[in-house]
Design goal:
Number of strands: 10
Strand content: 5-15%
Largest sheet: 4 strands, antiparallel
Oligomer: single chain
Cofactor: cob(II)alamin; [4Fe-4S] cluster
Function: Catalyzes the conversion of epoxyqueuosine (oQ) to queuosine (Q), which is a hypermodified base found in the wobble positions of tRNA(Asp), tRNA(Asn), tRNA(His) and tRNA(Tyr).
Number of domains: 1
Subcellular location: Cytoplasm
GO molecular function: 4 iron, 4 sulfur cluster binding; cobalamin binding; epoxyqueuosine reductase activity; metal ion binding
Pfam families: Fer4_16, QueG_DUF1730
Radius of gyration: 20 Å
Shape: globular
Strand order of the largest sheet: 1-2-7-4
Length: about 300
């Protein structure tokens, strides 16, 4: 086994030891096709008020602008599918937000992975990213052989479904690269048919400005367009509809990450409990939760929607 193969095997073993469910690696190159798709998506205004999506366009499509002399993009998947479900009568919360904020959890794991690489290989330059940086993580996951992009825009893994977080570690280390896998959605259109706001405008294209997750998390205005207010199907934070109906998610299994253990209030609160919640209680109960992204006023706004 040559040194590149040794490095690759070491990284994948360390990723597994840190609790990541999958690890794939792709060569760091400019994503020309993705650049064209992103430009079209932005020009059509499908990012709504998410103006940060317009920033750092060159960095989004070329990892070599994020890490000097980048050679490889390591993509890691971490399952978040919960063992327990919410009170079915309560306002719905996306499953990714049941436990602690994944940014904190995954960033810590990426730091350890990079440190172990540096301790073993010597001088290695790299940066880890989780969702909040200019990285097209789903494209890299696809290039790394970790799945295909479904018609709902989510990465789908053939053995695990789509309920997982995607993390990226860009490094100047040359490694062995994985090959992409084929698309296995076939003629299925369950996700397209199920979206109540028609956010899935065509297979693989999500109009972010129409998505329930956008309205309940990203949109900061206290008024939601009236023509959307009765379409939320009881979702208060995020939305899992297009994943819940996906046949590939019959393979989803409960995660093993202790930090993703559901916050009791998320499982047990009734609508009345949410309505009675004070701002002080919200900040205390959800201080480590993704729900803090919507803030207390956002949650109160979402509770007033006709569809909840």
């Amino acid at each position: 086994m040559n040194i590149t193969a040794n490095y690759t095997a070491f990284i994948k073993k360390q990723a597994a030891d840190l609790g990541f469910d999958q690890c794939g690696i792709a060569r760091a190159v400019q994503l020309d096709d993705d650049a064209r798709r992103l430009e079209t998506w932005l020009n059509k205004g499908m990012h709504g008020t998410m103006h940060y999506m317009e920033n750092n366009f060159d960095k989004r499509i070329d990892p070599r602008k994020l890490v000097d002399n980048a050679q490889s993009v390591i993509t890691l998947l971490l399952n978040y599918y919960p063992e327990e479900q919410q009170n079915p009568e309560a306002p719905k919360i996306s499953k990714y937000a049941y436990g602690n904020d994944y940014h904190e959890v995954i960033k810590a794991k990426l730091k350890v992975l990079l440190l172990r690489m540096q301790e073993t290989f010597g001088e290695v330059n790299g940066r880890g990213f989780v969702d909040s940086a200019p990285v097209l993580e789903r494209s890299w996951a696809q290039r790394s052989g970790l799945g295909w992009l479904g018609k709902n825009g989510n990465l789908i893994h053939k053995q695990s479904g789509s309920f997982f977080f995607i993390a990226t570690l860009i490094t100047d280390l040359a490694l062995e690269y994985d090959s992409p896998v084929g698309d296995h959605c076939g003629t299925c259109t369950r996700c397209l048919d199920a979206c109540p706001t028609d956010a899935l405008v065509e297979p693989g294209v999500v109009d972010g400005s129409r998505c329930i997750s956008y309205f309940t998390i990203e949109l900061k205005e206290l008024l939601i367009p009236e023509n959307m207010q009765d379409r939320f199907e009881n979702w208060m934070f995020g939305c899992d509809i297009c994943q819940d109906v996906c046949p590939w998610n019959k393979f989803s299994r409960p995660n093993k990450t202790i930090e993703f253990t559901p916050i009791p209030a998320i499982l047990n609160f009734s609508t009345k409990d949410w309505e009675a919640l004070t701002e002080e209680e919200f900040k205390k109960i959800f201080r480590h939760s993704p729900l803090k992204r919507s803030k207390y006023d956002g949650i109160r706004r979402n509770l007033r929607l006709k569809g909840i």
